[in-house]
Structure of Sensory transduction protein RegX3:
Amino acid sequence: MRLLLVEDDNHVAAALSAVLARHGFEVTHARSGEEALQALVPEGEGFGVVLLDLGLPDQDGYEVCGKIRKRTSTPVIMVTARSDVRSRIHGLNLGADDYVVKPYDTGELLARIHAVSRRTAHEDAPGAAETTVRLGPVHIELPTRQVTVDGSVVPLTRKEFDLLALLAQRPGVVFRREQIISEVWRTSWEGTGRTLEVHVASLRAKLRMPALIETVRGVGYRLVAPTA
């Protein structure tokens, strides 16, 4: 897999590139936001994942993420020292598929890279069901991956849509956290649990229906279909 590493620290980039190469990745190193955007023209140059450090010298990392998402659907994993939920949700809203908080374990990073790449390959596979799920004012168009509330389109990231679509398969049924992580992230890695919490919070905020996704303490989540 080709991977675009956006990192302004040459020493960090060299060390990480060596590790990624040992695990079969072909790494292209961009030292700034502008270099990253140029590398992604046209159509992402076949990159499987973009690993985006937010501490860039020329542009705000969040701004770069938004620009990347406008020109390509290539999965983006943010690398940030900010561990608060608000910052993570902001990144996800801009189109990031996942995030890794510094300092991170190399195994954690590799697990997240493989998870987003597997999910992307799954989405691109033929044979997806052509159905629409209607839950009161919420309409989920599975073929086009579009969600509307009262007729207005709600832009969701890849993982947010996958999570909502999974829960909407069986409204009222509790999905275990382990099951959700396995189906949406295609991994059993335990550290993904925090990512799940952030995605649920982001979905509630975007849909403006906090009660739509109910937390079942100690078990998981379920979708509560609106009555009107």
